[in-house]
Design a protein that fits this description.
Layout lengths: L8 E5 L4 H11 L3 E6 L20 H4 L6 E4 L5 H13 L2 E4 L5 H4 L4 H7 L4 E6 L14 H7 L2 H4 L20 H21 L4 E5 H8 L1 H13 L30 E5 L10 E5 L5 H7 L14 H4 L3 H12 L4 H8 L6 E3 L3 H5 L2 H6 L2 E4 L7 E4 L22 H7 L4 H9 L4
Parallel strand pairs: 1-2, 1-4, 2-3, 4-5, 5-6
Antiparallel strand pairs: 7-8, 8-9, 10-11
Helix pairs in contact: 1-8, 6-9
Bound molecules: oxidized coenzyme A.
Oxidized coenzyme A binds next to α1, β2, α4 and β5.
Length: 419
Amino acid sequence: MNKPLNGIKIIDFTHVQAGPACTQLLAWFGADVIKVERPGAGDVTRSQLRDIPDVDALYFTMLNSNKRSLTLDTKKPEGKAVLEKLIKESDVLVENFGPGALDRMGFTWERIQELNPKMILASVKGFSDGHEYEDLKVYENVAQCAGGAASTTGWWKGEESGPMISAAALGDSNTGMHLAIGILTAYIGRQQTGKGQKVAVAMQDAVLNLCRVKMRDQLRLDKLGYLEEYPQYPHESFSDVVPRGGNAGGGGQPGWILKCKGWETDPNAYIYFTVQGHAWPPICDAIGKPEWKTDPLYMTPKARQPHIMDIFATIEDWLKDKTKFDAVNILRKFDIPCAPVFSMKELLNDKSLRASGSIVEVPHKERGSYWTVGSPIKFSDLKPIITGSPLLGENTDEVLAELGYSSAEIAAMHDAKAV
Ligand code: CAO
């Protein structure tokens, strides 16, 4: 099978989620990704949130498939020498250590360029270089707060009205995906210039990039003083910052999460319902309110907006004897954009996702096979085969031998606990 990234060698000096998500994607598409880990311990996620004693946690296995593992103490001279050799022979070094950690190890950008002028150094940090918070260490939720997601997510009134974190990894995996695009861009650039370069993505910036519609709303609010697609309009007042809009649709079409049959006991018996402006007549037909098609109080988006929550309440009433699946099966016939709220359990067992490779079963040497999330990117000429994640140091001797070390030298490195 065509694996377009075959031949690209990546030193994966990453840990936790943001960096590993990036390198895993590149490994799926054919790159040789060598994960460098501290001897004896490895990536902290190997032991975090374990479901089976002494076996690599799913947190690790789900972010490190298709890689090789090399243990290396890069603070010891022997370990540094191995890393230098690897840098000379690789195309990309990806890292997401705390600010300054790579420099303290002796691998500044200048030193890396001396070793290999073609090297692409790719980094994730919490904040960008020169930012007033550039020294901060950052995890997922910190990034969501710093990048605008938390201030614009959640409820604007009531007890639960504070900033809210999304369950989606907007800070971690999202930053990793941005970095993957940066690496491939730098790689194509290198084919033109012959030179490597440094690629950096700050988690704050990656979150902000996904929150650009909220920046759009801030600019509109500055000009108009109100935002007519928010649930606060027209009955409540706006301050000078974008408010949290609950489950409101973020674009030009109002939407809301609506209860379906069984919501009292099933936390996910809901659908998302969207009121597309031009699709109003079919919505009226679908929910049994044909008279709304010609009623001036309902005919235009402007007329509907002041009582849009009442309209949603009427649709909820229509939904009360329909499961989320019944509802979608009716609404799809009228071309109404909608979907059930799926639980993780439903997604895990979803036949379509399994058939498409978005959920895949992967073998693992110690835990047996397990289900994980496969590539969301589909190609006509590449079907990524997701393999298990490596055990800690599983490929150490193999990688050292490839670098030209003799068996005696490798044994000496083990004795010195450098690998
Ligand atoms: N051999 C020897 N030392 C090693 C090593 C190895 N193979 N791998 C790592 N280390 C050392 C580093 O050199 C560093 O040592 P110093 O601090 O003494 O220089 C240390 O281990 C790791 O430091 P760290 O700051 O990266 O780790 P932490 O657990 O304190 O912080 C995190 C974790 C994620 C907050 C921090 O790495 C960070 O802010 N990274 C950038 C942002 C990021 O990617 N965050 C997302 C993580 S996913 O939620």
